[in-house]
Amino acid sequence: MPKPTPPFVLGGETIRPGTRARVPIPVAPLYVQAMVHIDAVVVHGVRPGPALWLSAGIHGDELNGIWVVRQVLEAVEPQALSGTLVAVPVVNAFGLLQQSRYLPDRRDLNRSFPGTSTGSLASRLARLFMKEIVARCTHGIDLHTGAVHHDNLPQIRANLDDPETRRLARAFGARVMIHADMRDGSLRQAAMSSGVVSLLYEAGEALRYNRRSVRIGTAGVLRVMSELGMLGASSVASRLGHARSTRRVRESRDTTWVRASRSGFLLLDVDLGDRVKKGQVLGALHFHVHREHVPETHRLVRAPRSGIVIGITRNPLVNLGDALLHIAGLVPRESA
User: Fold this and answer.
1) Mean pLDDT calculated for residue range 213-230
2) Which of helix, strand or coil describes residue 202?
C-alpha cells in the first residue's frame, strides 16, 4: 500500500492533500500601516510529487506573469495533481502599487537575493521569499517581461548545461530557449545555488498585457508540470489548444544587443521573431526632420550577426547607446 501524502506546511498553515489554500505571509506595513504580504496560493495534490513554485511580479511593473499565474491556478485541480504547486502572483506588491520595477528604496528585488533578515527592505523580502517559498520547493519558474518600452519575444532563460534544467526548458515550449549566465543577486541564481532547478520566462513589455505572451506562458507552465509528472499528459493536452509545439523550440548560446550609434528617431523594418542575417538593414536612425541644407539625415542600422530578434524597443525616440534590438544566435538544429 502506498504511503499517504503528507500535508504541506507554508507560513504556519497546514494544507491537507487534495485541497488548496491562500496563505498570506506578512512582509512589512506601508507607512499608513496597511500590511503588505507575499500572497501565496498552495494547491496540494492527492499524490506525492515535486513541489513547484511559480512567481510573478518580482518587478512590480511586469504584468503578464500575474495573469499566467491566474490561468495556471484555474487549470490545476488538487484532485488531479501529484505534488504541490506554490503560486505567488505578485512578489513585489510595493512596486505594483507604484507601477514601478523597484521597491520604495529604489532597489531591484531581482538583484537582492538570497537576501538577509537585517538588511534593506529588498534584502528582507528576498530572504523571506527564499525561506518561505523556495526552501519548500524542488523546482521553480519565475515569470518576467521586458522593461518599459522594451518588448521581449516569449523565451526561456536557463542554465542549459544542467540536464534537468535543459529538459524542463525544452518541455516549456517557448520559441527560443537561451543559455543564460546567472545574474548576481537574482532569484534564479539563489535558487540554483540552493539546489532548486529553476527557469526564467520572459515575454512582452512592462505595464502592458499581451494575450499571446500569457497564452504561451500558461501552456509552458502546464507542460513543465506534465514533464515533472505533476499532471497527466492527456489533461494538459486538452487545455493547450493551439499553443506552440515543443518541436519548434530553438536553442541559443549567445545573444547580442544592437545599440544606437547616435541619438535620433528610430524606424525599424523588423519585429520580434524575425530571422536576420549579418549585415542586414534592420531600420534607420533619423536625426534631422528635414533634408534642406543637411547632407546627412539618417544612418542605417545593420545586424551585427545572424540570428532571431528576441527583444526590441517600442519607443522610437532613442539616445546614444540605447538598446534598440536584442538578437540571439541559433544553434544548428542537429546540434541542439
Assistant:
1) 98
2) strand
**What's the CA gap between 23 and 84, in Å, rounded?**
14
The pLDDT value recorded for residue 296 is 72
Average the pLDDT over each of 7-21, 76-90, 322-336 and give the range with the smallest value: 322-336
Name 291's Cβ contacts closer than 8 Å, sequence gap at least 6: 297
Confidence of residue 21 (pLDDT cuts 50, 70, 90): very high
Cα–Cα distance list, 135 to 23, 57, 154, 171, 248 (Å): 16, 19, 28, 24, 34
Instruction: Identify residue 37 by its one-letter amino acid code.
Output: H
Amino acid letter, 80: A
- Structure-derived torsion over alpha carbons of residues 170, 172, 176, 181, reported in degrees to the nearest 10: -80
Provide CB contacts within 8 A for 112, sequence distance 6+.
120, 122, 123, 125, 126, 185
Answer whether 96's CB lies under 8 Å from 60's CB: yes
Cell of residue 286, nine digits: 533619423
Strand ranges, E, within 163-263: 176-179, 197-204, 250-252, 254-259
250 within 8 A of 308, measured Cβ to Cβ = yes
* Residue 224, pLDDT above cutoff 80: yes
Pick the CATH number of 8-251 from 3.20.20.70, 3.40.630.10, 3.20.20.80, 3.30.2140.20: 3.40.630.10
- Contact between 201 and 220 under an 8 Å Cβ cutoff? The reply is yes
Phi/psi for 334 (5° steps) reads -70, -15
- 244 pLDDT band, cuts 50/70/90, is very low
CATH number of 254-335: 2.40.50.100
